[in-house]
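User: Here's a structure from my thesis project, written as structure tokens. My advisor, Dr. K., wants to see whether a designed sequence matches the one we expressed. Can you design one independently, without my sequence as a hint?
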């Protein structure tokens, strides 16, 4: 993806001017064009093997994607106002969710933990950029260094994701990067809350492990989701950029 003129294109994106971003605008420009009533653009991202696995059965996933995928992930962080992960990702990876491989600001970090089961001992609640813990249960207003944002539960018992997007937009956080894990990205997809989906496919076969998506079961092929995509080389992997426009399965 990096080539002649990349630095100028990247600076244009960081300045919020995708019209000057040249070739990079095709991939990142949609992040600057909200169309949903809540004013947000929500992009989900997963890195999977050729056989559709995002981790081993034990949860080990570092690293399925190569250097190109890591840079792409950090670029999305730099361009978005908020990076969002589920409680399982924090429990298994204790991620920092900062921009370290590219130039640009680190986003607000948002952790979904409806039942407030995570302890405050994780690094994300002790140091680094501003962090929000999103929960459905009442409790203290702070969780370590994180502010607690209360959002009601939805019909499925999880957090009400449309309400969450409205609450983030009210704080000026309208470019939302749903980084993981697979269950969290799948919940946003099932709720019709994704505008874009970026799927990195690595040249690797595990043969077992956790599947990339967990969605309602279908009985016939035609009931599955079909969509167009654009393909980008992020060597050694391939990136699929999919326009979902808030479609649900």
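Assistant: Designed independently from the structure alone:
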């Amino acid at each position: 993806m990096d080539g002649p003129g990349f630095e100028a294109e990247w600076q244009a994106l960081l300045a919020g001017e995708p019209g000057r971003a040249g070739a990079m605008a095709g991939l990142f420009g949609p992040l600057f064009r909200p169309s949903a009533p809540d004013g947000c653009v929500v992009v989900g991202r997963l890195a999977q093997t050729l056989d559709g696995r995002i981790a081993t059965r034990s949860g080990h996933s570092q690293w399925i994607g190569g250097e190109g995928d890591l840079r792409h992930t950090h670029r999305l962080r730099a361009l978005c106002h908020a990076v969002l992960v589920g409680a399982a990702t924090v429990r298994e990876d204790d991620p920092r969710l900062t921009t370290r491989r590219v130039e640009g600001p680190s986003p607000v970090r948002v952790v979904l933990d409806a039942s407030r089961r995570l302890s405050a001992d994780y690094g994300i609640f002790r140091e680094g950029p501003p962090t929000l813990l999103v929960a459905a249960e009442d409790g203290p207003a702070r969780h370590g260094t994180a502010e607690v944002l209360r959002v009601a539960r939805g019909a499925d018992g999880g957090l009400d994701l449309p309400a969450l997007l409205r609450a983030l937009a009210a704080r000026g956080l309208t470019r939302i990067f749903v980084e993981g894990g697979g269950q969290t990205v799948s919940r946003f997809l099932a709720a019709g809350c994704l505008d874009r989906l970026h799927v990195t496919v690595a040249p690797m076969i595990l043969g077992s492990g956790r599947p990339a998506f967990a969605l309602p079961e279908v009985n016939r092929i035609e009931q599955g989701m079909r969509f167009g995509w654009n393909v980008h080389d992020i060597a050694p992997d391939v990136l699929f950029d999919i326009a979902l426009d808030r479609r649900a399965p």
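When you compare it with your expressed construct, this may help: The chain has six helices and twelve strands.
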